Amino acid sequence: MGDGERERHLSQLAAQGRHFLDFGAAGDGQAVEVLGDLAAARRIAVLVPGSDTTVDTFDYLGSRRASLGGGARAVHDEMRRVARGPVAVVAWYGYRAPRTMSRDVLSSARATEGGGRLRRLLDELRSVNPAARVTLLCHSYGSVVCGSSVGGTAGRAVPSSLAGMAVFGSPGMGVGSAAAFQGVPVWAGRGADDWIAGAPHVSVPAFGGMVGFGADPVSRSFGARLFDAGTGGHSDYLVPGSLPLHNLALIAAGRTSEVSRG
């Protein structure tokens, strides 16, 4: 991408009224945007994106509904509509997301690195607002990052503020079942037209790490709570007015009894 395009994207991200906890423009960059008041929120959703996310695609990735920034705004709007109290959303591009057409997207290496960074964010949120309940909303490869953050903690306690995780369009979470997450509620959904359904659910050692991400989160044997993700494709979960967006907002808002089940 040329310097002019990068400059245009950076100018858009620097627009007045936007608030970033972290930002960097080197390489693919990183950007962690906050919508709402973290200190006052009773419920916080952290949106963790999948492959092909960069600072250049933060606001636009083929369609605005597929981008991290656009999806976060849709989640924030819907959470404000359904929640019983103040909410905030964190659009977290804080790891080196792989490219879809690369060997990295088949490996857990970047998810393991990203999981450690996501864990630090959860600790920071707890220090800012220890009373808030935090839900991770994890799309595609981002669900592997979330799995590493919560399931790969090797004896470390899960943050007490973590209310749950919801994964959508997931190739797997790097674990065999939801039991790996130490009692943290896990929700999973997949759109009827999502190509990720054809991904093989295996995990084998290769290239000095693991290739594949294990069990299918929407399989009954995995043990997640299934939500209705509608009829859309891989990039359609956060479309404003859609069923999956509404269900994800209900989960993040703590109104889980109202979620339509898959």
DSSP helix fraction: 25-40%
Task: Please state the oligomeric state of the protein chains shown.
Answer: single chain
Please outline the major beta sheet. 8 strands, mixed
Rg over CA atoms: 17 Å
Shape: globular
Mean pLDDT: 88
End-to-end separation: 40 Å
Number of strands: 10
Q: Briefly note the structural class of the backbone.
A: alpha/beta
SSE pattern, N- to C-terminal: HEEEHEHEHEEEEEH
Strand content range: 15-25%
**Order of the strands making up the biggest sheet:** 1-2-4-3-5-6-7-10
Tally the helices: what do you get? 5
Low-confidence runs? none
Describe this structure in words.
There is one protein chain. The protein has five helices and ten strands, in the order αβββαβαβαβββββα. The protein has helices at 3-13, 68-82, 109-128, 142-151, 243-252, and strands spanning 19-24, 30-36, 43-48, 87-93, 133-139, 162-168, 186-189, 204-206, 209-211, 225-226. The strands form two sheets. It has an eight-stranded mixed β-sheet, with helices on both faces. Strands 8-9 form a two-stranded antiparallel sheet. Helix 2 (68-82) packs across helix 5 and helix 3 (109-128) packs across helix 4 (142-151). The mean pLDDT is 88.
Name its key features:
single chain, 262 residues, alpha/beta, eight-stranded mixed sheet, two-stranded antiparallel sheet, 5 helices, globular
